[in-house]
Amino acid sequence: MSQWRDALRATPMRLTLRLVALFLLVSTVSFLVTWWLANEALLSATENVLEQEIEELSASGDPKTIARAVADGAQQADPEHQILRYDGPGGPVGNYLGPLPGEKLRQVDLHDKGQDINGSYILLSERVGDALLTVGQDTEAFNDLREVFVNVLLFTLLPTAVLLLAGGMVIGLRSARRLNAIEDTLERLTSGDLTARLPVTPGPPDDLSRVGAGIDRLASAQEASVAALKQVSTDIAHDLRTPIQRLALVLDQGATDLPDGPAQEVFTRASAEIQHISTTFDALLRIAQIEGGGRGPHFVPVDLGQLARDIAELYDPAAQESGHQIDLQVSGKTIVQGDRTLLGQAIVNLLENALHHSPPGTVTLAVEDRTLSVSDHGPGIPETEREAVLRRLYRLDRSRNTPGSGLGLSLVAAIVQRHRAELILTDNHPGLRATIRFGGGN
Ligand SMILES: Nc1ncnc2c1ncn2[C@@H]1O[C@H](COP(=O)(O)OP(=O)(O)OP(=O)(O)O)[C@@H](O)[C@H]1O
Ligand SMILES: [Mg+2]
């Protein structure tokens, strides 16, 4: 259905519809003009015949002879096809004696049951002396002409319009399909899958395939530059990780070896800071790695309910320590295609947020209908901040003094995106509800 809607919106389809409308308009006008001309020609030919008939009947100029000729002719004529009448001094004679509206050439409907006259006739009346001589013909020739034109309309014009429309539909549908492919590729590229390319279209290249080739070239260039950037960041990470770890060791050593006092205190603080730097650094690298990767080769069917059960069990002691209870609600079996470790990491991050950012109480971990959610009864996240907290290193003002780097939700967002799922933060009245919804095709 939507395919047809797309096809109707496609430029070739619109052009075709306009051309068909123009063709129909031009053809109808020329058809009507031809019909009118043919009708006029037939009328003038009929007038000539009738004029000649009048001339022949009135050749003698004597009313009695004319009346006789008309009476004879009327007797032989078939009143269904031919009318003859003379309104002379001796009264009207002929095969139609009813009322005669008007004079000159005209088309009139005549009715005379006694004479078998019932229908349309072309009549010509002319004055001969004081009398009026009228001859007429039925309109069968005109009916035949109309029939010919109706047939032309039915068997040439209509099929042509239908064929044109069908052809336009096919072309429109084809180009809509190609535009959809371009749109899909662009969507995949925007959502981070830089390997996406347009399918090859058979046939000679046209404007759409040129646009497609341009998109492919752009994607290849983007893929190459992202790969180069990734390489640089990995190199920096490798180069920096070891000195940072060495520095952490030195500071740790200092903090343990030094006697109690201001110097030892500085070393302990510095050691904690470098630990924080190291974790932040690792988390940033991990997010970049997850965002950079496409749909991983490690994707396997993952039982979300089982995963949630394992994590709830693992985190139960930590939850109890902070005064929380984890309420696990798993209904039905939800299997998704994914990376088990990454999905586990996402659930852990959401659970840790609920434990760290909400006061003691119940934290619900629920899995049902291809969705997983973690809800708490804490202060929640204001609606205006729900997009910002997904950014790297972003933390709400009130969390400035609690431990953390502001990377947990960014990591969840990256993992969710990699699984082509959706992360939705909503109000739990009160508290936060974080939901991961997996698509049907996941
Ligand atoms: N369940 C929650 N309730 C209230 N606020 C939350 C909740 N989860 C996250 N937040 C707010 O969103 C911010 C960002 O969360 P995020 O998980 O990204 O970072 P973090 O928890 O502060 O640090 P990290 O997860 O890196 O240790 C938090 O600092 C906090 O202000
Ligand atoms: Mg967190």
Automatic annotation (TrEMBL):
Broad class of where this protein is predominantly found: membrane
Compartments, record wording: Membrane
GO cellular component, as recorded: plasma membrane
Keywords: Kinase, Membrane, Phosphoprotein, Transferase, Transmembrane, Transmembrane helix, Two-component regulatory system
Annotated GO MF terms: phosphorelay sensor kinase activity
Domain HAMP per the UniProt entry, residue ranges: 173-227
Domain Histidine kinase residue range list: 235-442
UniProt-recorded name of the protein: histidine kinase
Source species: Paracoccus sulfuroxidans
